Amino acid sequence: MSGLPPMVHHPDYSFPFPPEHRFPMAKFGLLADYLRTRGLLTAANTYRPGRCRDHWLKQTHCPEYLDRFINNTLSRDERRQMNLPWSDGLVKRTLLAPSGTVLAAQLALHHGLACHLAGGTHHAHYDHASGFCILNDLAITAHVLLRQTGVKRVLIFDCDVHQGDGTASLLKNEPNAFTCSIHCENNFPFTKATSDLDVGLPVGMNDDDYLSVVDRTLNRLLDTFSPDIVLYDAGVDVFSGDPLGRLNITEGGIRQRDTQVLGTLVRRGIPVATVIGGGYDDDRQALAARHAIIAEAAVAVMR
Ligand SMILES: [Zn+2]
Question: Which domains does the chain have, with CATH numbers?
Fold first, then answer.
């Protein structure tokens, strides 16, 4: 693998989409381009997922909701919750991405570390979409790992600026999946779910305070929960300039966070699969570069 960590990507993650929409659908393709240009995503370390198995989808989500989404028969309210224009391209990418996170987790179990260049749709609930999230790849992957592999304990370490409410709800009766969300308290979703551990941060928190909370929380969880694998949501909407953020974290701070999290896990020999999570910016190239930080950190930690 030429020393590069495995990276999971599919060319259909980005598809023709209204460019003025708040959700930056182009970012997945731009992120892959960015990494390819820098020699970090090559034929040797690229893995492509297939369509998520029905069985995997249905052990986490409501089968009727899945059917309504796939067949474009969602109600008006459901479409409003989804807040993304339905299209064949949307269905295709939505059914690919969860198996991308499963694939990244399987690669992480084998190689120690793997990056999914998408994923982290943590607001999706059992039978409805929310916050641009239709299916919950993190909960789907946790269920697959616990039920279809030998994994005993999964830690979901979610550092997206928004609370992982869907993941918390979907896994609340699963004692072997520990959900931890470190988010800005006064931000979407305004009605929070209850994760196994919620760390609500004040608006405007800066790098030093943030990095120390993330480090302390991770180390405490590794000592107490002893996961066999970690799913790390490296959302970049903690960035100071993110329009949906409200924290005051620099790009240097994000790089330090990701290097610190991956370094800790690799040092302790705990497999980790990363997902990119949220990130918003009218400058799509700048956003792609910001999402590349987690992949660059993975390369640095593996060297
Ligand atoms: Zn977010």
Answer: 7-302 (3.40.800.20)
